[in-house]
Amino acid sequence: MKQFLIFTVKTLLLTFLVLVILDVVYTQVYLQSNHRGKIDYVYNSKARNYDVVILGSSRANNHFVAPMFADKGLKIFNFGMSGGHLFEASLLLQLMIERKYIIRNVIVEADLNLSYEGRADGVAAKFLPYIHQSETIKNHFSGESDFFACYYVPFYRYIAYETKIGFREAFFTAIHKEGVGFKNLGYYPLGVNPKANMKNDIRNLKPVRNKHYENIKRLCKENKINLIAIMTPMCSNTNGLDYFQKVNTIYPEIHNYEDVVQGDQYFSSCGHLNDTGARLFTKIILKDFFKK
To answer: Are 132 and 31 in contact (CB under 8 A)?
Structure first.
């Protein structure tokens, strides 16, 4: 019995040591990366200077054609992240400010994402390699249900989110394989999808006074950044389009561009413009906010 207990204790200690070593190795890999994804591109950076920074979900990533801004002489990057929520957008802006970025304008897509304050696990996981190095990231995640395990249990976060920050992603990061998000200044164009379902139903969505959007507003005000909050286009065959009017009841400062692009030929799916539609939309935004 004594030998069994000794063996068990040794096994547990060895397992714990292996987990600690793996945690350190994986973390060091991510700390050396700055061109795999948009999060490490910001986290492992120093002060940058932008005329325009774009934040939001895929409805930002696929809708704001960054090269069209650049053609007007504006230094820009589209930091929209497919699948992301305002939880991640707010944290990314905090990290930019922490790194002394000079930002003149922030365009934030604030529409469907206002209905949910939680995080998007697939995107939020990409911040977790830095949770021990960054008080900002630690504090942002401190209210999450798995915070204790992610912060205090070695290697847990890499196991729990293996598909996002596990072996495969760590390997590509280690060999400095560039992510797809850096083409077109962060803008990701969508093609025409002939099989797309051009119907949608958002009647169950209810906009709320979103704490992460409130935090973006506060950060912009404190750092003298001009905030441009925009609701981006939806296809016309959507049930519950009064959602966008409900947003303006809570946040009248958010500009409603839900219906400025008409015609299914401009959409890749009901909630996402294709490249042609995105260019029409971006042309309108440039005219309305960056005419000079």
So the answer is: no
